[in-house]
Amino acid sequence: MDLWVFIGLALIVVGFVYMLAKKKTLKYPEVLIFGPVNSGKTRLFYMLSEGEMMNTVSSMKPNSAVINVKDKMVSVIDYPGHHFYYQQLVSKAPTCLGMIFMLDSTDKQSFKKAAEELYELMSLRYPKEILIFCNKQDQPFAKKILMIESELSTEIERLKVVKENDISDIKREKVGKANERFEFSHMQDFNIKVEFAEGSLVKNDIQEIKSFIERVSKA
Ligand SMILES: Nc1nc2c(ncn2[C@@H]2O[C@H](COP(=O)(O)OP(=O)(O)OP(=O)(O)O)[C@@H](O)[C@H]2O)c(=O)[nH]1
Ligand SMILES: [Mg+2]
């Protein structure tokens, strides 16, 4: 083979390997998906990253993928709902663009734990953008968005009273307004925006999630 052809080919191969390595190490702004076990996080992850509707099983580790959002590259990370992964999520929270907090609207038992995790996150003051998605609205016993918001607010109000009187709890920032019943909109005073949406992944109802990702990616 002609020497120059060989050098040319070698340069192309080196360039290709370099670009692959760079793509792997490039860090894109992140959108986190969290929430209780079985709420639909991984199903959503595959809808966003592969555009595929698939049945999923309980995750053993986080999934991540880079997606193109209106010509911006964004990394989407889906954490298993087990509390074990909560600390990993918290370490990403200060730098992420936003978080999608998935709920199974039929699983009332999971709301208490969800409220505790939301309370903790809000007391840490990150993430600044949270979308609480009330999933599985195709199911006959799914609770509606207003009912879920009210139940979460009641539980957070209870936590607010308990934790504010806990003198060992010194690092925690205040959640909500003093002397007022907790409402998610109060978090705007601390520059935290919490939105609610409802839908069903099996019915491909993810427009509000996509709009949320687009909006936070623009920032
Ligand atoms: N009926 C119904 N089922 C859904 C919906 N979204 C997800 N599922 C199903 O719920 C089950 C759990 O979904 P996953 O996405 O695996 O749940 P997950 O939140 O990732 O769960 P963990 O990884 O265990 O934390 C799967 O069988 C999904 O197909 C929905 O909108 N309606
Ligand atoms: Mg999962």
Name some characteristics of this structure:
single chain, 219 residues, alpha/beta, Rossmann fold, six-stranded mixed beta sheet, binds guanosine-5'-triphosphate, binds magnesium ion, GTP-binding, transmembrane helix, Small_GTPase_ARF
Task: Give me the secondary-structure topology.
Elements: H1 3-25, E1 30-34, H2 41-49, E2 63-69, E3 72-78, H3 86-92, E4 98-104, H4 109-124, E5 129-135, H5 145-164, E6 193-198, H6 207-218
Parallel strand pairs: 1-3, 1-4, 4-5, 5-6
Antiparallel strand pairs: 2-3
Helix pairs in contact: 4-5
Overview of the molecule:
This protein has a single domain (28-218), classed as 3-Layer(aba) Sandwich (Rossmann fold), CATH 3.40.50.300. Helix content is 40%, strand content 18%. It contains 6 helices and 6 strands, in the order H-E-H-E-E-H-E-H-E-H-E-H. Strand 5 (129-135), helix 5 (145-164) and strand 6 form a beta-alpha-beta unit. It is elongated and about 80 Å long. Bound molecules: guanosine-5'-triphosphate (GTP) and magnesium ion (MG). Residues 37-43, 55-59, 80-81, 102, 135-136, 138-139, 200-202 line the site of guanosine-5'-triphosphate.
